[in-house]
TrEMBL record:
Keywords of this entry: Hydrolase
Pfam families: Abhydrolase_1
Native source species: Streptomyces narbonensis
Residues of the AB hydrolase-1 domain: 20-247
Transmembrane segments annotated in the record for this chain: none
Molecular function GO terms recorded: hydrolase activity
Identification of the protein by name: Alpha/beta hydrolase
Length: 262
C-alpha cells in the first residue's frame, strides 16, 4: 500500500504489476477491494493501481465540503505519485463520474477512458423523477441508526451478489462510513457532466452489464452518441457490478482495449 497526502487527507492506493499504467476507480459504498479480480489478472501485463478514495477503505476521513473536483484532484495526485505518465483510467458507477471530472481538469493525465456502468452524474444521465426517488432512498438509508446502517444500494446485481466474492463484499460493507456515502450520493445527484462528453478526444471504452438496473443500457447509448468514436461492449446477463458478476469476460474486455491503446 502507498499513501499520498492531498487536500488535507491521506489517500491510499495499491499498485501491482509492471507495464503501462491502468488506474481503477471504485463506486460508492465500496472501496478499492472491489477491483480484486482485475488487479490480480491484469498485473501480468500492466501496472495496476486501485485507490481507496478519500473517506473510503484505508484512506483518511473525508474533509468537510469535499466536492467532486476535490475527488478528481485527489485522483490526479495518485496518478502523479505513481509516476508512470498518463494512465488508462477506468471508473465504475460513481467512480466513472469522478474519472470524467479528472478528465475535465487534468486531461494530460489520461491516455484513455474506460467508463463502466456509470453516469454523467445522476442529474446528467437519469430522469428527474428517478433522481428524486434515489435521493429519498438515500435519505432513508442514511437516517437509520449506525447499528442498522446497510450501505447496499438496490439493483446492483442481475442475479444477487456473487458467492465467490461474498467475503470481500461483506468486509467492504462493514467498513463503509455513512458520512462518506452521504457525500458521494449527494454529489452524484447534483452532477451533470454531459457538457464534457463531446469534448473527449482520448480513446473511450463503454463497458456495461446487459441487465444493469441502476445505469441502464440507454445511458450507455447516450454516452456512445455523445463521445466521439466511443466503443461499447455489453457483457451479457449481468448487472451494475459487472466486474464482479462476470470477472473473466470483464477483464478480457479491459485487457483487449488497454492493449490497443498503450
Amino acid at each position: 500500500m502507498a499513501v499520498v497526502r492531498v487536500g488535507g487527507v491521506d489517500v491510499a492506493y495499491t499498485r501491482k504489476g509492471h507495464g503501462p499504467l491502468v488506474v481503477l476507480v471504485h463506486g460508492a459504498g465500496v472501496d478499492g477491494r472491489m477491483w480484486q479480480p482485475q488487479v490480480e489478472a491484469l498485473a501480468d501485463e500492466f501496472t495496476v493501481v486501485s485507490w481507496d478514495e478519500p473517506g473510503s477503505g484505508r484512506s483518511g476521513e473525508l474533509p468537510p465540503g469535499f466536492g467532486l473536483a476535490d475527488f478528481a484532484r485527489a485522483l490526479a495526485a495518485v496518478i502523479e505519485d505513481v509516476g508512470l505518465g498518463p494512465a488508462q483510467v477506468a471508473g465504475l458507477s460513481w467512480g466513472g463520474t469522478v474519472v470524467l471530472e479528472l478528465y475535465r481538469w487534468r486531461p494530460d493525465l489520461v491516455k484513455s477512458l474506460l467508463m463502466v456502468d456509470t453516469y454523467a452524474g445522476w442529474k446528467g444521465s437519469l430522469p428527474p423523477e428517478e433522481v428524486t426517488a434515489r435521493v429519498e432512498g438515500a435519505r432513508r438509508m442514511l437516517a437509520a441508526p449506525r447499528e442498522e446502517f446497510d450501505p447496499t444500494l438496490p439493483g446492483l446485481y442481475a442475479a444477487g451478489p456473487p458467492e465467490r466474492f461474498a467475503a470481500v463484499l461483506d468486509a467492504m460493507s462493514r467498513d463503509v462510513r455513512p458520512e462518506t456515502m452521504a457525500a458521494q450520493l449527494s454529489l452524484m445527484a447534483e452532477a451533470d457532466e454531459t457538457d464534457l462528453l463531446p469534448r473527449i478526444t482520448v480513446p473511450t471504452l463503454l463497458l456495461w452489464g446487459e441487465r444493469d438496473a441502476r445505469s441502464p443500457l440507454d445511458v450507455a447509448h447516450a454516452f456512445q452518441a455523445a463521445i466521439p468514436h466511443a466503443e461499447l461492449v455489453v457483457i451479457p446477463a449481468v448487472g451494475h457490478m459487472s466486474n464482479l458478476e462476470a470477472p473473466e469476460a470483464f477483464t478480457a474486455a479491459v485487457r483487449t482495449f488497454c492493449r490497443a491503446h498503450v
